[in-house]
Amino acid sequence: MIRNLLILLFCCFFIIAEASRKKPRKKDFVPIENLMQADDYLKASELIDKLQKKYPEDSYLYLLEGICLLNIDGKTKEAIQPLLLAQEHYGLYSKKNNNAIEANYYLGLAYHLNYQFEDALDLFTQLQDTIPAKRESIHQQLKQQIDYCENAISLKQDPVDFRITNLGQAINSEYDEHSPIISGDENLLMFTSNKQGHSKQGKSTLLYPEDIYSSKWRDGAWLPATNVGNSINTSGYDATCSLSSDGKTMILYRNNGNGDLYISKLSNDKWGKPVKLPKPINSPHEESHAGLSIDGNSIVFTSDRPGGVGNKDIYMAHKLPNGDWGKVTLLNEKVNTPFNEESPFLSHDGQTIFFASEGHNSMGGFDIFMSEKDINGQWQEAINIGYPINTPGDDLFYIPTFDGQRVYFASERNGGYGRSDIYIIEFPESDERSLAVVSGFLFTESGLTSDSSTISIINKVSGELVGTYKPQTHSGKYTMILSTGVQYIMTIETPGKVSISKEVIIPYRANYKSKTRASYLDPMVIKNESD
Fold first, then answer.
1. C-alpha triplet 375, 378, 381: angle, nearest 5°
2. Whole-angstrom Cα distance, residue 67 to residue 62?
3. Distances from the Cα of 469 to the Cαs of 349, 455, 493, 500, in angstroms?
4. How do residues 240-286 score in pLDDT, each as one tens digit?
5. pLDDT for 86 beyond 90
6. Using CA atoms, how far apart are residues 13 and 21, in angstroms rounded to an integer?
7. How far does CA 467 lie from the centroid of its chain?
8. Quick check: 385 and 160 in contact, CB under 8 A?
9. Are 514 and 426 in contact, with CB atoms under 8 Å apart?
10. Which of 380, 334, 374, 372 is nearest to 354 (CA)?
11. What is the pTM of this model?
C-alpha cells in the first residue's frame, strides 16, 4: 500500500517536472493567435492564463501576454513585467525569428504609454542601432516611435495650464463615449457611445454598435443621456460629427460599407431621417468625420479618397449661391501629413481649424493640433495644443465652445468610468480666451421669428463695428461672440420695421466659468413702422 503510494507520488512528481520542462506545441498557440488577429485580446488573455499554469516559464507566452495586456483597457502598466521577462529571454535581436524585435518593440510601447518616455526612447534607439538597415519597414516604425518619444519629452517640459473635469455618470459609462458635439449656448450635448442601444452585443469585443445619445443642461447639471431613437440610430454604426449653433442641424457618420456623412434636422423635438450628403462631399471612399461652419456654408471633413497627402486627409468645401456644395479642396501640407488626420472642427470665425493627427509633432498616436489662416487665407503650420491635454495615447474629438473658454473632449484617462469618457476642459483667467457667448431671440408682433433682421454690434467707446449677425430662420435665435469687459451698442434693423438700439455690457469672466454657459438677453419684439 505504502509502496504503491510512493510510486504514485513519484509518477506525479515526474509528470509535474516533465510539464515544467516541456514547451507548448505550435498548435496550442493557434487559437490564441487567431483571437489576437481578430482583436479579441480579452479572450486570448484567458487562454494564455490557462497555458501558463501548465507552462509557467514559456517566454513566447510572456510575449503574447504582454501584447494582449497592451491592448486591454486599463492594463498597459501590467504589460511591462511579462514583456521584460520575454526581453530577457530573447535578447535584443535574432536572425532566427522576430520574437526579440517584438519583445523589445512592445516593451518600448508599454514604457511610452505609461509616460516612461526616456526608457522607451533608449529602447527604440538601441533597436534602431541593432536591426539591419535592410529591414526598412521596421526602421520606419522605429523612427516614428522615436519621434513620438522626443516630442513627448519636449512637450512635457512646457505643460498647458487647464482644468479637466469628467462630465459624470449622466453622460459616461463603462463603455466608450466619444465625439461630443455641443450647441452654441451649451444647453444641448450629443455624443456617440457603444453601450447597449438598438443592436446586439458584439461576440468578440462585447461592445454594441455605436449609437447617438443626447443630454440637456438643466438647473446646473446634465440630465441623464438618452438614446435619440431609431429615426437616427440603425442596427449599424452611427456617430456624431457636428452640430449647428442652434442645435437643430446635425452631421452624422454611418458605416454602411465605405462610411459616409449624413445630415439630419430637428423639428418638434424629433430628429428627422438623415439624408446622405451629396457628391463631392461623399465619395466611393470613406468620409469619417466633418465639421460645419457657424453659418452652415462651409464644411471640413476627412476622407481617404485618392489624391491626398496620405491615408486620411482633411478637405474643405463651400456652398454655392444655389445651395449646392462647390468644389472640394485638399488642405495644404501644413495641416495634412503622410499619416492620418481626423475629427476636424472649425472655429466660429472660420479662421482656426482644430483637428487630430498622427503626424506633425504628435507625442503618440493621435494628438490635437490647431492651424490658423494667414492674411492670404492660407493655413499655417499646425501647432500641438500641448501636454497634458495630449497624451501618449489617442486624443481626438476636441470641440471648443464659441468663446474658446471651454472644450468638450473625449479621452481615455485614469479615474474615468471605463474606456473613453467625455470631459470638459476649462482654461484659467490668465489665458487669452476672454470672450463671451451672448444669445437671444427676435420675434415680430405676430409671434413669428424675425429672420430678416440684421444685428450690428458697435464698440461704444471706439465706435468700431465689431460684427453683424443674423437670427436663425426657424427659431429667431441669434448667437454672438464678444470680448468681455467692453460696452457695446446693439442695433437691430429689419425691413419695414422699427429699428432698435440698446446698450450691452459684457462683464469680465470669473477664473473658471464653466457653469454659466451663454449669457441671454431678454427676447425682443420687432414692431411695424406704422405702429
1. 105
2. 9
3. 12, 5, 11, 14
4. 999 988 888 999 999 877 899 999 999 888 899 999 999 999 999 99
5. yes
6. 12
7. 31
8. yes
9. yes
10. 372
11. 0.77
| pLDDT of 509 higher than 70 | no
Please give the CATH topology (third level) of the domain spanning 163-426: Neuraminidase (2.120.10)
Region 24-156: CATH code = 1.25.40.10
Give the three-class secondary structure for 34.
helix
Residue 530 near residue 498, CB atoms below 8 Å = no
Spell out the CATH class of 435-526: mainly beta
Q: Cα–Cα distance between 328 and 191 in angstroms, integer?
A: 27
* Cα–Cα nearest to 193, from 176, 205, 208, 179: 176
Count the neighbouring beta carbons within 10 Å of the beta carbon of residue 136.
Answer: 9
359: nearest Cα among 380, 379, 389, 334: 334
Q: Strand 270-271 relative to strand 260-267: parallel, antiparallel, unpaired? A: antiparallel
Query: Cell 511591462 identifies what position?
Result: 80
Label residue 480 exposed, middle or buried (CB < 10 Å: 0-12, 13-18, 19+): buried
Q: By the 8 A CB rule, do 397 and 179 touch? A: yes
Cβ contacts of residue 492 below 8 Å, gap of 6+?
Answer: 442, 453, 454, 455, 456, 499, 500, 501, 524, 526
Cα–Cα distance, 488 to 501 (Å, whole number): 10
Q: Which grid cell sits at 207? A: 461592445
Closest among 304, 328, 308, 305 to 317, alpha carbons compared: 328
Residues 198-248: tens digit of each pLDDT: 555 555 455 788 999 999 999 889 999 999 988 899 988 899 999 988 888
Do 24-156 and 435-526 fold alike per CATH?
no
Longest Cα–Cα distance of the chain, Å, equals 119
Instruction: Specify the pLDDT at position 430.
Output: 47
| The pLDDT of residue 362 is above 80 | yes
Q: Per-domain residue ranges for the chain?
A: 24-156, 163-426, 435-526
C-alpha cell at 386: 500641448
| Contact in structure between 421 and 407 (CB atoms under 8 Å) | no
Q: Is the dihedral of CA 41, 45, 47, 52 positive or negative?
A: positive
